[in-house]
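ugh ok so i messed up the first submission bc i forgot one of the chains. this is the corrected input, ALL of the components this time, i swear. 308 residues overall. if the numbers dont match what u have on ur side tell me asap before i send this to the collaborators (the ones from the other lab, u know who)
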Amino acid sequence: MTADIEKIIAKSQESCASTGNKLTNKRKKVLMVLLNSALPLSAYDIVDRYKEQFQESLPVMSVYRMLDFLIKEKLVHKLETASQYISCSHITCNHQHEMPQFLICDRCGGVKEVGIKKAIIEELEHSIRSTGFLLTHKQLELHGICKQCKIQSA
Amino acid sequence: MTADIEKIIAKSQESCASTGNKLTNKRKKVLMVLLNSALPLSAYDIVDRYKEQFQESLPVMSVYRMLDFLIKEKLVHKLETASQYISCSHITCNHQHEMPQFLICDRCGGVKEVGIKKAIIEELEHSIRSTGFLLTHKQLELHGICKQCKIQSA
DNA sequence: TCAGCTATGATATAACATATCATTCATAAA
DNA sequence: TTTATGAATGATATGTTATATCATAGCTGA
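and heres the new structure output, hopefully the right one now
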């Protein structure tokens, strides 16, 4: 595994430890599968890649449980609109966990986790709160065509 | 059916006619099932309610096709994060179809289609466009707890 | 060491969605 | 009026995503 991934894994270990939880070997390998993928993966995709990458099969039920764990630890995001999972791109940056924002390309399936200007997000949150609604999930998923795909089709 | 629903159906007929398409009897009844429901429904829910309300069964395949049609006609929205369908709350208002915004209550399952201040939405869209991403789907789905449920649990 | 808890496995099934071919039905040209 | 055409719907099968539940393994601390 690359140095980058090693660093991310180390940081993830710490992060779990700090919440009193354990990044077991299998959970770590599931996270690595996601880190190794440029595209978001479904739980069933993860089963397949896990087998390829580690010559070891994992029941899909276990994958779902491990994903739940990794999501709780904020190491992984679920793209609700795509039923796919992606590693958080901010594991190593001591980030505040603000509202994650994903631009999902419907052509290539790629996802970019972006940072929309904080002021805009705060206005948006404020506007929602003012209707009496309590935001709990805080995540934006927006669909379209990414820069690359746009250029290719031009 | 109530006068309100009659009015909405009439408007929907017109709207389809104007795009050269037909709101067939079955499509109309699927729309009515959604209009009669306070909560969003899955395609399979629609099959069940259709049978209850019209003593007539409809294959789920047909429901999906009719939903596709109604969505293209902008009479129905799909809540991607919930895999559920809901009638557009603006059928009768000669609305511009701007970015629809849904607040989805994870307690009661209720959905409110809200209008966030246009300026905020435009800033958001602009911010996304400026990354080179071409927004095509334009829909926000935000999850949390609605006012009612918040009050009840207080 | 063993009791108790957490993690994982195994199996079944539920819930959501699409592919494909057949049939029905409306419409309009002959 | 008949018939050809295309659109809408039905029927059937299957793919994909997700959860329920009970069993087993494995760690950890008394």
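quick check: The helical segments of chain B are 3-18, 25-35, 43-54, 60-72, 118-129, 147-152. that seems consistent at least. Residues 1-94 of chain B form a domain with the Arc Repressor Mutant, subunit A fold (CATH 1.10.10.10).
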